[in-house]
Every structure is written in C-alpha cells, then in structure tokens.
Automatic annotation (TrEMBL):
Catalytic activity reported: L-tryptophan + O2 = indole-3-acetamide + CO2 + H2O
Species this chain originates from: Steroidobacter gossypii
Family annotation (InterPro entries): Amino_oxidase, FAD/NAD-bd_sf, Flavin_amine_oxidase, Flavin_monoamine_oxidase
Keyword Oxidoreductase appears in the UniProt entry: yes
Family, as annotated: Belongs to the tryptophan 2-monooxygenase family.
One Pfam family named in its UniProt record: Amino_oxidase
This protein's name: Tryptophan 2-monooxygenase
Keywords assigned: Auxin biosynthesis, Oxidoreductase
Domain Amine oxidase: 27-473
Requisite cofactors: FAD
Gene3D superfamilies in UniProt: 1.20.1440.240, 3.90.660.10, FAD/NAD(P)-binding domain
Superkingdom, natural source: Bacteria
Class in the EC hierarchy, top level: oxidoreductase
EC number: 1.13.12.3
Amino acid sequence: MSASAVARPDIAPVRNGKSVLILGAGISGLAAAYELSRKGYAVKVIEASHRPGGRNLTLRGGDLVDEVEYPQRCEFDRHADLYFNAGPARIPGHHAALLNYCKELGVALAPFINENRNAWVQDDAMFGGRPVRNREYIADSRGFLAELVAKSIRPETFGATFTQRDYRQLLEYVRQFGELDERFKYAGSTRAGYAIHDYTKPPAYKQPLDAHELLRSGFIYLMSFSELDDQSAMMMEPVGGMDRIVTAFMARIGALVELNSPVQSIRIGDSGVAVRYRKGGSTVNAHADFCLTCIPMHLLARIEHNFPKRYSDALSAVPHGKLFKIGLQMKQRFWENEGIYGGISWTMQDIQQIWYPTHDIHRDKGVVLGAYTFSDEVAEKFARLPPAARTKLAIEQGERIHPGYGRHVESSISIAWHRMNHMFGCPVRWSEPLQAQCFRTLQAPVGGHYLIGDQMSYHPGWQEGALHSAFHAIADIDQRVRASASLG
C-alpha cells in the first residue's frame, strides 16, 4: 500500500456481544459488515431493494431495472460477456482500498481502456459536425497552441534571472510539447497519425486540422481529461462486471443481509439505536449498540427519526445529481473495424459519450455504452422519455459518430438514477459552502448512529470514497468500544 493510501482500521476483536445494524447494502455497508462481523460484532444488514450493491449495478439478460414509471427487463443475450455496468465501471490505480478488497476477496481484474486516441470527437460546431479522431483533435490543438507560444515568448518578459539558456530550454520544451518542426511551426505530427499506414512507403503525416474549426469546439477539457487524478492510466475493471465485487462480499457476509426490507423508523436512545423496518407484510423491530446508515441522505431525512434538528436539516440541504446511462447490445463489433478497441468517443450531443468494451475483442457481439450524461437537464430529458424513445434518441445521435449505427443495435437497457427506487439520485453535490456548513455535522455520530457511503466523503461518486467513509465510522466505533472496555 502506498504511503498516501488510507489504511483499513485495525479493529480489536470483541467478545461482549456488541451489535451493529447496517442500513443499506451498498459498498460501504457491505465492507463495514465484513470488517465488523469478522471481529466478533453481531451484525445485521437491512436493505430496501431486491438486490445488494447500491449503485454498483451490472445488468445482464433477465435483470430488472427498478425505475419508477419505467421498470425494465434487460433483454441482452444470456452470455457472460454481454453485460452493462450501469453504475461504476472503472477503478483508478490509486484506489487502494477497493483494489485491496478485490485482491483479498479474489475478484479478478483486467485493464480498463479509459482513453483511446483512435476514438472519435464530434461537435456540430466544428467541421460541419464531422467526427475527427481523438488523436488528431488533441495533437493538432496542442500543436497550434505550441506554435503560438513559441512565436510569442520573449526572454526579456521573464525578468533578469531568466537567462538565454533558460530561454532556449523553454523553446525546446514548447517544441516538444507541440511536436513543432525546427522552425517552430506545426505541420502535422506522429501524434496526430499518418495519412496512411503502409510501411512499405515513406511516412506521410496527416494534414493538420484547421485551427479556426478547432477553436469552435467545446472540447477543450479533452486535452487534459486522461491526466486527471481519477481518469489516468492505469485503470481497471473486474472481469465479468463491476458487481463481481458485490458478489464477493456477499459470499462472505450474505447471510447477514436482509433484502426487500425498507426502513420505517430510526430512534436513537441512551442504550443504542432502535430500527423499525418492513419485511414482507410484517413490521420488524431491531435494536443494536451502533447503527451505520448508507441510505441516501435525502431519503434518510424522510424516514421517521429523532435526529437533532441541525443534523436533520443538513440531511436535506445537500443536493443529489442526476445521471443517465444506456447500454446497447450490438450484433457486430463494428467499432473494431474502425480501429477502436476500448475507450471513449465524445460528442457535444446529449448522449455525451460512447464507450466501447475493452473485453472480448473480435467476438461477434458486444455491449456499448450509448449515452452517459452528467448534466441534470439532459438526464431529465432522457428520463422523461419511455425506454424505446430513449433508445431511438441515443441511436439518432450515435449515427453522427458512426453512420449506420442503428442497424447494429439488437436490444437496449437504460437507467435514470434519479428515478431508481431506493435511490432517487446519484452522487451528492457538495459545494465548498455546504461542506463547511454540513459535512462535519453529518460525519460525526449521533449517539450510536453513523452516516456512511460515498455521500460522506470528499470523493462522492466513487466506491473508494464510500469505503473511506466506512473506515472512518468503524474506527470510531472501535475506539469507543475499547474505551468502554478499559472503563469496565
């Protein structure tokens, strides 16, 4: 583990029957149950949904999408390779807590191709909507920028300490950055690619894209996307789908999990936490010394409770995002004929992204992510449509990138996370003012009750954030139990 990674807490074993209720079987809840149960805590996990995992959801043929108004059954072929990660789909290499669990629980991993320079960039504002290769867009944009910088900088603008040698080194850096020629002019580059790959002939660069057209594009952020902390190589994915992590946890602690059990009431008292939940047609009362809750905070606020007002108000103060995804089973892996193996094509249309599966190259079929929206407005636009209309729109926009796209689609499945039962939202959207106002309040325990999940991290939307929140809570429980034992 790297020095900067957050370590799993070293929990002391207990022999005095300390009990813990965990509300929600998301990744944080499952990890907390795993850690606490193996140290002797009496643990019960109560989950409202028909399945564990929270937003860790992989869809295969026959699976249910429990969306309000538009419930769906996935109609993919029943084949192990044809699946769709409707929630998290990639693991950065520095997410040590999640990767360590994968190793410990035997979850096989494979490389995930996040950026592919052979994939497409499409924006109606440039080149008449014609897609261009990612590599050309990035290389030519950087080339033109570097040429402009090389023509503009003067040594006298940097002050007396900036020497002629420094100036020459800076020019060389700029030249390398943009792959400029000896005259500091951009005339195409190996990064943008060759006009033809015929290795029996001398190489010829592609003609650079028109700089005026590139400047019309809204994709400036693409030039640094793959350098972001959570988007850079090496990234990974579980072999067979992200929910292999959920399955691995359930193999260890599944007997502790009660599904289809929505919580109705949480009451904090001097002797612990009392929880009332519905199971089948019956009401069940449970009590424990401690309670960990990964129920989305905006839903937790609506459950009957006796939380302090400041805490209750904070639960309702933090907004949740709206994300939409659609998976398309393709009867032919046509993108591989275009030289695309994994990675993402980008568009300024509503679908925003198309992802190509990294696994099972050269098989007959594959599942493509046909839309991944980050804008609340766009996600709501898709969510209002019936599933067939969502697919139609995604195909229409995909055609702008891949002509003939629609003829390859065999079936589809879509998910609007803000309309999913027991979720009704995606990651929380912490602003700095809200963090200053609410985060510490919600992170601190109320009696024996703790709020966990990626919502209680500075890394919402990632499983690593969820795990760190669980570590924080169980470390505090461990400290309290140790202190109690020393007093006793």
